[in-house]
Design brief:
Elements lengths: L6 E6 L10 E6 L12 E6 L2 E7 L14 H10 L4 E10 L9 E3 L2 E5 L24 H13 L4 E3 L2 E5 L7 H10 L3 E3 L5 H7 L4 E9 L12 H25 L26 H6 L1 H8 L1
């Protein structure tokens, strides 16, 4: 993508767009050939920067992590013209120094989900994107700086292990993930981040610590009520971080290597490609499929 303006897609809670100060806000339903997204998008501007919000779990938090149509969500954001995606979500901490209320700009991922649609591609059009560094360092850095400016304690970097849920992990699992080198735990970053890369959209994850998961043997395990309470208490900080992000973005968006992630990813010969799948990928991969 050539130099030009920013258009930030934000995936977060159902009330995130409310109270953020979005100008010219419009709620728009957007359809996807990959099925129903979590809900309509809310588009508007913050400090002159275009933002598009999508509630990951739908209105009223009706969708559990495993029922979210991640493909449709990324596809509709691409159709809306977003240039970059910022995910805001709750996480559990696997490290003492990552305390409830802190924010973490995640930079690595471990996938422990099961049964989710992990790719836009498949039989009839095979593609392999690089995921060595699955998060966008530029947007992650900008988001971390914005959250710091909003008054949050922010940790730059951290490995996120994505579990299937909807149950929280056992103490044995929590200890295992710590031994693997994971720093935080959640249920929604994957396959969301993988699909964003396939859609050539730089993706950052600014996550809010709500609890210490289950690895502290002397403490009770995670309770949903506590998680929701911490999220509610820090919602205004997240909104403030978005306003700071809008104000701090460079006037021009320089091209990112992620903008061309599909450039050499296709393995299927053009003559053998499935026309129906190619048509479904019009938004996600139209730049390279023509």
């Amino acid at each position: 993508m050539a130099q030009g303006g920013w258009h930030i897609g934000v995936i977060g809670g159902s009330g995130l767009a409310d109270g953020v100060g979005l100008e010219d806000a419009q709620e728009i339903p957007v359809s996807s050939p990959f099925g129903e997204p979590s809900g309509p998008v809310t588009m508007g501007t913050l400090d002159g920067v275009r933002f598009t919000f999508l509630a990951r779990h739908g209105a009223g938090h009706r969708l559990p992590p495993s029922a979210i149509n991640y493909r449709a969500n990324i596809d509709v954001l691409k159709r809306c013209g977003v240039t970059d995606i910022l995910s805001l979500s709750a996480i559990g901490s696997l490290r003492e120094e990552l305390a409830p209320g802190d924010f973490v700009a995640v930079d690595q991922l471990i996938d422990r989900t099961a049964g989710r649609e992990r790719s836009f591609f498949g039989p009839g059009l095979v593609a392999h994107v690089s995921l060595a560094d699955p998060l966008c360092p530029r947007l992650s850095g900008l988001a971390a700086e914005a959250a710091t400016a909003a008054g949050a304690t922010v940790h730059a970097g951290g490995c996120y292990v994505a579990i299937e849920g909807p149950q929280f992990s056992t103490r044995a699992e929590s200890g295992l993930y710590r031994a693997w080198g994971a720093d935080v735990i959640g249920m929604t970053a994957l396959p969301e981040a993988y699909l964003a890369r396939e859609a050539e959209l730089p993706y950052a994850l600014l996550a809010m610590v709500t609890d210490y998961d289950a690895w502290r043997e002397s403490e009770a395990g995670v309770e949903a009520a506590h998680v929701f309470a911490v999220m509610k208490a820090n919602a205004q900080t997240a909104r403030s971080a978005l306003r700071h992000l809008a104000a701090s973005l460079p006037p021009k968006r320089a091209a990112s290597p992620i903008d061309t992630a599909l450039e050499h990813a296709f393995a299927t010969d053009p003559a053998a490609r499935d026309p129906e799948l190619v048509a479904r990928l019009g938004a996600v991969a139209g730049r390279v499929l023509g």
